[in-house]
Amino acid sequence: MYSVLNITDDITHCGNIGHVVNDFRTICNFAHQYNFKGINIDFRYLNDLSLIEGKQLLEKLKIKPVAFDFPVKLFADQKAFEQSVLKFESVAKKAHEIGCQLTLCYLPPFSNDLNFNDRFIQTSHRLKQLKDILKQYEIKIGFEFIGPTETRRTTKYDFIHTIDGTRALIASAELYGYGGFKLDVHHWQNSGASLLDLHHLDLDYILYVELNDGLAGYDIFTIPEFQRELPYETGVTKVKEFLTLLNEKGYQGPVVVEPWNETIKNMSVKKAIQTVKQSLDQCLVFN
């Protein structure tokens, strides 16, 4: 397993470490300074660098380009979806050229317009249309299911929020080998899944791992989705058991810390990076 710095995500809800840096050079230099092995990429932030120059900088600093944002509007109207597929093809080409082979897709666990059956069929059909692009540019999709109930209690319909639901979608879309998991320990535990579910999960499915810890005083039906701590901070989430099993399975892929935490958001960006790296280093020691 190797450490990844993710400071390209939107921070509406303190996402990831709560900071966004809008310059590729700066992100690379932060990763190098704090000894991260990989970074996530937002191609808007290359700024004055060409793809070739960006790739050369990554190679010079020995940093892996890990993942890029999934621009496909899977759950929008048909016209918006079709337009976004064109954008995806363009971004996938850039990702291939810079050596990035993973895109990350959030699966909303709810719907207010289509019931589960209709949403599933529509999503599966749309994902099938992406397979040729994925094959051509050697890209895989890491799907993130959302385990806690908070975001679907008041919605009209629910949607995929488990390991099995995600695997079924991948199978239905005929994306085995091209689709897998952006596996968040918070969502794994609070979906009601167990270590046995991880044991039976094909290693090839596990593409990207996120770590954090839950707040004390809640159960899986009441735990907040958008408030978390650094891994090993509270002991609510079974981070050690989760990582130990992944290590035993032979997982060697990217790992990030995603605390969704106001305290870290309010730190300076350098202090936040240093803090999450120290936490991540602690997590990635196996003995």
> With helices defined by DSSP (H or I, 4 residues minimum), what is the helix count?
11
CATH topology: TIM Barrel
Nearest-integer average pLDDT: 94
According to DSSP, the number of beta strands is: 10
Using the 3D structure, state the CATH architecture: Alpha-Beta Barrel
Name the helix and strand elements from N-terminus to C-terminus, one letter apiece.
EHEHEHEEHHEEHEHHEHEHH
Helix content: 25-40%
Specify the CATH homologous superfamily.
Answer: Divalent-metal-dependent TIM barrel enzymes
Give the uncertain stretches in residue-range form: none
Q: Note the gap between the termini.
A: 14 Å
Give the overall shape.
Answer: globular
Structural class: alpha/beta
Beta strand % = 15-25%
CATH class: Alpha Beta
Q: Gyration radius, to the nearest Å?
A: 18 Å
Task: Write down the domain tally.
Answer: 1
Largest sheet features: 8 strands, parallel, barrel
Any overview of this molecule?
With 287 residues, this protein is α/β, with parallel strands linked by helices. It has 11 helices and 10 strands. The protein has helices at 24-33, 51-61, 78-98, 116-128, 131-137, 163-172, 185-190, 195-199, 239-249, 262-265, 269-283; strands spanning 2-5, 38-41, 64-69, 102-106, 110-111, 140-144, 157-158, 179-184, 206-211, 254-257. Strands 1-2-3-4-6-8-9-10 form an 8-stranded parallel barrel. Helix 1 (24-33) packs parallel to helix 2. The radius of gyration is 18 Å and the shape is globular. The model has no long low-confidence stretch (mean pLDDT 94).
